[in-house]
Amino acid sequence: MTTPLPTSRTEPDGSAVIRVLSYNIRSMRDDTEALARVIRACAPDLVLVQEAPRFFRWRKKLARLAAASGQVILSGGATASGPALLSSLRATVEHAQDVLLPLTPGLHRRGFATAVVRFGRARLGVLSCHLSLQKDERYEQGGMLLDRLAALGTPYAIAGGDLNERPGGRTFKRLATELQDCWTVAPWGGEYTSTPVEPHQRIDALFATEGIQVLGCGVPLGLPGITEPDLRAATDHLPVLAALRVPAV
């Protein structure tokens, strides 16, 4: 069984231990009950969603998933062209913003879901992304991600999502040079995120700015309440879960 990650808590010095989940949910086209069970079992404070519903009654679908998994909606969905942010009631939201990226003719429109949140005295910028399948556009979007994360104006920040690229790719390397690649810093659980039936590549990741302590990060295989049938049925990606300690400000 996977060693448990630290639970969410506030430390005596005011720092916050939080659990962050990044998950491509494939527009909720699969088993949404299994999806909600996986999210609930991870007990996240923040959920960085990719491929949230974007079309007919998308808000209602995302709200139903949030309620079923013990979360509330912060931002995103169709208004960010797919990325979204959910949170537990532990988070205090300062503001949230959806960002649409420049459209390349013939390619899918991309965007970021962003927010600034507080956990007690810990203040944190958050960004969920789903980068392009086209390598040059993806590299440009990686730079936009770094710029947008800095523009949130917070002392600490995290970003995560479906990068559509493995760690050896130049966009992944660009992000990992500027930010902490949480899996590399403190590997925990499983590494590969695609596909659930035959995991063989890491194309989903969580990143953190310097000063955030990564306590563990990886695919929550063997976590109590999570079963392989649910992971296979929920969507076509495996989730990435991290425990982070964010300093007080």
**H/E topology pattern:** EEHEHEEEEEHEHEHEEHE
Q: What integer is the average pLDDT? A: 97
Count helical runs.
6
Distance between the termini: 36 Å
Low-confidence stretches: none
**Helix share, percent:** 10-25%
Number of strands: 13
Morphology call: globular
Q: Helix- and strand-based class?
A: alpha+beta
β-strand amount: 25-35%
Main sheet attributes: strand count, strand direction, barrel closure: 7 strands, mixed
What is the radius of gyration computed over CA atoms, rounded to a whole number of angstroms? 16 Å
Task: Describe the protein in words.
- By secondary structure, the protein is of the alpha+beta class.
- Helices cover 24% and strands 31% of the residues.
- The protein has six helices and 13 strands.
- The protein has helices at 32-42, 58-68, 135-151, 170-178, 182-185, 228-234, and strands at 9-10, 16-24, 46-50, 72-76, 84-87, 92-100, 111-119, 122-130, 157-162, 180-181, 204-208, 213-218, 240-246.
- Strands 1, 2, 3, 4, 5, 12 and 13 form a seven-stranded mixed sheet that branches.
- α1 links the parallel β2 (16-24) and β3.
- α1 (32-42) crosses α6 (228-234) and α3 runs parallel beside α4.
- The model has no long low-confidence stretch (mean pLDDT 97).
Give a quick summary of the entry:
With 249 residues, the chain is α+β, with helices and mostly antiparallel strands. Helices cover 24% and strands 31% of the residues.
